[in-house]
Structure formats: C-alpha cells, structure tokens
Amino acid sequence: MRELRCLVLCAMLAACGGSSEPAAPQPTNHAPAAGGHVHHAPRGGLLVVLAEETAHAELILDRARGGLDLYLLGPHAHSPLRSAQQKLWITLDGADGELKLALVAEGNALSGEAPGNTSHFSVTDDRLKSIGALAGRLGTVEVLGRRFEGASFDSDH
Fold this sequence. Notes:
Blueprint: H1 2-16, E1 30-32, E2 38-40, E3 46-51, E4 55-62, E5 67-73, E6 87-94, E7 97-106, E8 120-124, E9 135-138, E10 141-143, E11 146-148, E12 152-154
Antiparallel strand pairs: 1-2, 3-4, 4-5, 5-8, 6-7, 6-9, 7-8, 9-12, 10-11
C-alpha cells in the first residue's frame, strides 16, 4: 500500500511539472505595498493605490451591463473608506481616445452609507461594454481629510 501511495504521489508531481519558460505576466487584482507584501482586492476587481498603506480604490468593470463600480478602501484594502464627494471622475484610455466618466455616490442600507458619506461610486455607460483593458486615471479623490489626484491604473500591468 505504501508503494502505491508513493507511486501516485510521484505521478502527481510529474504531472505538475511544466515548461521551464517563465509564465507571461497576468493582470492582477492586487496592489504592491510597502515591505514587499501585496493587498488583494476584496471583490476581485482592480486595486489602485491612492496612498501607500492608507487608501485604495477597487475598480470593478461589468462589461455585460456597461457598468463600472469604484469602492474606496482603507489600510490593507480591508475596510470601507467613506468620502463626502457626490461624484468621482475617471478617465479611461480607449481605442477611440479618452473616455471621461463621472461615477456617482451610491448608498447602501445595510452599511448605513448614503451619498455624501459613502465608499461606493458607480456609472453605467454603453461605451464600457466594448472597452479593452481597464487603464486610465482617477480624478480627485477626497478621503481622510486629504486629496489624492491622478492615481493611474492599468489592468494589463
């Protein structure tokens, strides 16, 4: 029986082997942080660092509905970070040029968030249904009594 287990284990290890070529870089849903560790986007979106170890934005593109959601997150991208803003601007790089959109503050009855005191912003626009990679820049984001401007992002890198 022991020999059978060893044989099965060896076969499994051999099957896991692959090419010695390095894998091509893949888009990630995390952002590098200080000290070499990474922060993961809690909803599986694209994580944008606003301020190292302090503030993040998670972007979630839903091509099927032509929607884009942005969630503001605090340290380590764990907890919601509320803003008093009513709108956040985003500029996306598209094949036909730049696409500038206003994401509107959203409320959430479960969390008690409301426009003017929320971590969630969204927009729906049919042009998002055919956008390529999620790349561009955020406009001004006001959280924690600070203004963060022009944070860039690219889902291909």
